[in-house]
Design a protein that fits this description.
The complex is a heterodimer of chains A (195) and B (75). With 195 residues, chain A is mainly alpha-helical. Helices cover 61% and strands 0% of the residues of chain A. Chain A has 2 domains: 79 residues, Rna Polymerase Sigma Factor, Chain: A (Orthogonal Bundle), CATH 1.10.1740; 94 residues, Winged helix-like DNA-binding domain superfamily/Winged helix DNA-binding domain (Arc Repressor Mutant, subunit A), CATH 1.10.10. In chain A, α1 crosses α2, α2 crosses α3 and α3 crosses α4. The chains are: A mainly alpha (195), B mainly alpha (75).
């Protein structure tokens, strides 16, 4: 179902349309909420609150963004207004190299270079197994990196949308993305031995 | 140079490098199989991240929300 049709039906209070958007977006909303509040229980409340926000706000939704992006905005606002502090203090943009410095020689070129990954990584079955293995590793990233990686690379939002949503500058968004992606590549590199 | 190149990978993929930096990096990549392998791994990483499915929705949660929806509508 297209956004326009969904929105029209939601404005009329259509239960089937509501169930449809819940099924489509609830898991993504919960995943984002869990990066913003300290526990799953609070995250579930925030998502429920987001659905209430949809019911109250759908008449004013002008369709300038997608329904999904709008729901993410509602969620971020609700999460912030819970007044519950984030899991860890906002670390902002932390520095730190993308690759363990000990892997480079004194002249800055590779001493312990990356080994090309086997082509089977392109195989759909292997790829989906690896995707399952990388999922829990995302949770090990610092909160801001995790939020940016989830929105950009898992949910597939654009850089501008993510900056707006999280109140980040383009530059900071890129640094967070870079740290997060670099660490995940490193985690996958160590998993590759077990493929 | 390799140590610097790996720090430019995200800006490169995001199209955020200046024309000159981009050209320099591409020159290095053409010359350095290790950094090329690194870039290929980063692209694979992004591909895998895009394949992660959200956890399945518990049907009970959907039912409960639809019940709430009914109540919200009548408020």
């Amino acid at each position: 179902m297209e956004d326009a049709e969904l929105v029209a039906r939601l404005r009329l209070g259509d239960e089937d349309a509501f169930r449809f958007v819940v099924e489509r977006y609830h898991p993504s909303l919960l995943r984002l909420a869990m990066t913003m509040v300290p526990s799953r229980a609070v995250a579930e409340e925030v998502v429920q609150d987001t659905w209430l926000g949809l019911v109250r706000g759908i008449k004013g939704f002008e369709g300038r963004s997608s329904l999904r992006t709008w729901l993410f905005h509602v969620l971020v606002n609700r999460a912030r207004s819970t007044g519950v502090h984030e899991r860890r203090p906002a670390t902002g943009v932390t520095a730190g190299p993308a690759v363990d410095p000990s892997r480079f020689g004194a002249d800055g070129s590779w001493a312990d270079p990356p080994v090309p990954w086997p082509d089977e990584v392109d195989d759909r079955l292997v790829a989906s197994q690896l995707a399952e293995r990388i999922r829990p590793r995302i949770d090990e990233l610092p909160d801001m990196q995790r939020r940016v990686v989830i929105l950009r690379d898992v949910e597939g939002l654009g850089a501008t949308q993510v900056c707006e949503l999280l109140g980040l500058s383009e530059g900071n968004q890129r640094v967070l993305l870079h740290r997060g992606r670099s660490r995940l590549r490193g985690m996958l590199e160590s998993e590759m031995g077990n493929v | 140079m390799c140590r610097e190149a790996v720090e430019l990978v995200t800006d490169y993929l995001e199209g955020a490098l200046t024309g000159r930096d981009r050209a320099r990096l591409e020159l290095h990549l053409a010359d350095c199989p290790h950094c090329s392998a690194y870039l290929a791994q980063m692209r694979r990483t992004l591909d895998l991240l895009g394949r992660i499915e959200p956890e399945a929705l518990d049907p009970q949660v959907a039912d409960d929300l639809v019940m709430l929806y009914r109540r919200w509508q009548s408020e």
